[in-house]
Amino acid sequence: MIYDTQQSLDQLCINTIRCLAIDAIQQANSGHPGMPLGAAPMAYILWTRFLKHNPKNPRWQNRDRFILSGGHGSMLLYSLLHLTGYDLSLDEIKKFRQLRSKTPGHPEYNLNYGVETTTGPLGQGFANGVGLAIGQKYLAARYNRPGFEIVDYYIYAIVTDGDLMEGISSEAGSLAGHLKLGNLIYLYDDNHISIEGKTEITFTEDTVNRFESFGWHVQVLPDGNDIEAIATAIRTAQSVKDKPSLIKIRTHIGYGSPNKQDTPEAHGAPLGVEEVKLTKRQLGWDPEKQFYIPEEVKTFMQRAVVYGEQAEAKWKNLFAEYQKQYPELAEEYLRLQNGTLPENWERNIPIFNPALGLIATRQASGKVLNAIAPQLPTLLGGSADLAPSTETILTGFGDFEPENYSGRNVHFGVREHGMGGILNGLALTDGIIPYGATFLVFSDYMRPPIRLAALMKIKPIYVFTHDSIALGEDGPTHQPIEQLMALRAIPNLLVIRPADATETAVAWKIAIEHRGGPVALVLTRQKLPIIDRKKYAAAENLVKGAYVISESEKNPPEIILIATGSEVHLALAAQEVLKQENITGVRVVSMPSWELFERQSIEYQDSVLPKTVKKRIAIEAGSPLGWYKYVGDSGQIIGINTFGASAPAEVLLKEYGFTVENIVGSVKAILYGK
User: Fold this and answer.
1) How many Å apart are CA 609 and CA 607, to the nearest integer?
2) 4 confidence band (pLDDT: 50, 70, 90)
3) What is the 3-class SS of 397-452, one letter each residue?
4) Contact of 171 with 124, CB cutoff 8 Å
5) Known catalytic residue: 540?
6) What residues pair up with 436 in beta bridges, in sequence order?
7) What's 289's DSSP letter?
8) What count of other Cβ atoms lies within 10 Å of the Cβ of residue 212?
9) How many CA atoms lie within 13 A of 10 on its CB side?
10) 184-190 and 155-160 beta bridge pairing
């Protein structure tokens, strides 16, 4: 059939998206058909008239970014990716939600076929978009020059009622408005339905006034099927340069389903075989055809390939001229886009020696951070309103604000959850090395985005300070107990708790060079001695996760003390006391990173913790959970199974058994039963 009007072809394309989605969901007998049916028109018009992308090169640097924040509607995204020419075949659509398919239940980050971020937990995609917008603004400020807008992409998202209910959207949305991120355009799928019923049972706030109060430009559209009104609203949003935009579009969940439209039943379960047929008939579709794509739709929607290649070619020509006029900037830009670190970037990392006196590892971290910042031009970040305490201010590099998008200190405010989601968006921005800081106990607020960063294997760097009861008088509300173990439980998250300034310097080098997931640096509030590396093993051994920092005078040792962070000092001091009492069979192991240690060969692991040495003591000012795999049934753990208390640090450490005397007594008890 030849469609004689663009309007009828548009409708055919929209219904193709809808029917592909419900067919895949029905075949899987699992999924969320309501959102694809209701939001297909807004997604279609965005992807065919506005989104600048190249399906044949999903990694093109200057592409627009699209986020489906309501990841439960994933078949909407997969239908768009397939129809516009990405490497996502119809066979993969048919394998929706099946093992090892490219079409999991919620979108999972994979630029090979155009999925920009992992979404599912609501609100996370919303916050990721804010991070992507910050990253774009920073790159544009650093690299664009008059006549050479080599970084000018938009960040688009479709967000849902559920996204806006989650607190993270308020945190990220508030910051986005403050920062006047005019490169951020969100389409709000306002369908009035949640799993438990109509949203009015819990969600009656005025979202328009809410986002306007955040500093957003807001438009309201009454009909989610009016694609021309949606197109006009997107053009208007693009023209607003000093505010992020929210376009609130009234849609109908499960649109076209005779029995399930505008009901919770359309949200999270297949329509059912008969309802699928009824829905197709309502949409003017052949109810007997499955996974049907009209030739006209294929031809029209795959124009995205031609337009994308043309847009990229135009950009490449512009960049070629940019290289001629700004060769150093162009070289730096390409290097960062390729993920290559500058040569000798680490050359100014400070060398710490005992003569410098006592220094907290958070302070050492701050010195390292400022030493490496000049060599890493896209290292930027900040804290949840705790920069003076976490020592994470980049001195002399300015604040990232609307008046200065080239500033590298991002002030996240008291918004840990939002900061975590924004850091993920920054980490998804080619070339950006983001970090974010707060107290270790508040990592609990950040756990969902940390988990998603680990799932995506992207690399925000977390600076978690005030790492134990030794933070003192603020008391148990601020003293972490279980947080270290909670972080270690996350796959792909590299956790490093350095013993002193020298290990902290090595930890930062590892963090910058690490690939395959986020990194958490866990640092002290209290000052610590700098370990004399002429006497003890070199801090560079940290790269192996655990190492013998001080060997026993007996071979093999009689007992092994394993410690992390500030407790390494106690173990070393206990070893010295025991030597004075002629107990010389004590080996001390510094274990700053379980994850790095467990990546080493079995031979190396056995050289540090020989299986033949059964007597072991682990020492860490936190939950003992998990240490049993290192100390075994014959060992002991000096840890904390309760919450802390409000008192000076030295009082608390004594109260909870973190003293040289207690360690010495424990060694004697294990060795001699005393």
Assistant:
1) 6
2) low
3) CCECECCECCCCEEECCCCHHHHHHHHHHHHCCCCCEEEEEEEHHHHHHHHHHHHH
4) no
5) no
6) 382, 462
7) -
8) 15
9) 17
10) parallel
According to DSSP, the β-strands at 547-550 and 586-590 are antiparallel
The string of DSSP letters for 127-178 reads HHHHHHHHHHHHHHHHH-BTTB------EEEEEEHHHHHSHHHHHHHHHHHH
As given in the structure block, the two tokens for residue 480 are: 């972490």
- Work out the burial of residue 295: count CB atoms within 10 Å of its CB; fewer than 13 is exposed, 13-18 middle, 19 or more buried: exposed
Q: What is the dihedral of CA 500, 381, 468, 172, to 10 degrees?
A: -170
Measure Cα distances from 654 to 522, 635, 640, 647 in Å. Answer: 22, 22, 12, 11
Q: By percentage, how much of the chain surpasses pLDDT 70?
A: 99
Measure the CA–CA gap between 114 and 379, rounded to whole angstroms.
26
Q: Whose CA is closest to 464, among 443, 449, 494?
A: 443
Query: Strand (E) positions, 497-571?
Result: 519-522, 547-550, 559-563
Q: Which two tokens stand for residue 154?
A: 């938009």
Residue in 493, 429, 49 with CA at minimum distance from that of residue 229? 49
Residue entry with tokens 């993969």 = 92
Mark 213-238 as b/e (b = at least 16 C-beta within 10 Å): ebbbbbbebeebbbbebbbebbeebe
CA distance 586 to 643: 31
Say if CB 433 and CB 378 are below 8 A apart.
yes
Nearest to 186 by CA among 36, 33, 43: 43
The two tokens of residue 278 are 């009824």
Mention every residue, 6+ apart, whose C-beta is less than 8 A from residue 663: 561, 570, 571, 574, 617, 619, 638
Q: What is the pLDDT of residue 1?
A: 45
Instruction: Read off the pLDDT of each residue in 427-454 and give the average, rounded to a whole number.
Output: 98
State the catalytic residue, choosing from 312, 391, 416, 620: 416
664 and 577 in contact (C-beta within 8 Å)? yes
Sign of the C-alpha dihedral computed for residues 387, 392, 396 and 397 taken in this order:
negative
CA–CA dist 627, 451 (Å, integer):
22
Sheet bearing 245-250, strands edge to edge: 65-68, 155-160, 184-190, 245-250, 217-221
| pLDDT band of 46, cuts 50, 70, 90 | very high
In this prediction, residue 674 carries a pLDDT of 65
Q: Distance between CA atoms of 126 and 138, rounded to whole angstroms?
A: 19
Average pLDDT for the chain: 97
- Helix ranges (H only) for 289-431 are 295-301, 303-325, 327-337, 361-372, 387-390, 416-427
Write out the two tokens for 435.
């970090």
Residue 409 CA to residue 13 CA, distance in Å, equals: 45
Cα(495)–Cα(440) distance, integer angstroms: 12
- Judge if the upstream peptide bond of residue 222 is cis by omega within 30 degrees of 0: no
The answer on pLDDT for 3 being more than 70 is no
Structure token pair of residue 559: 């007992």
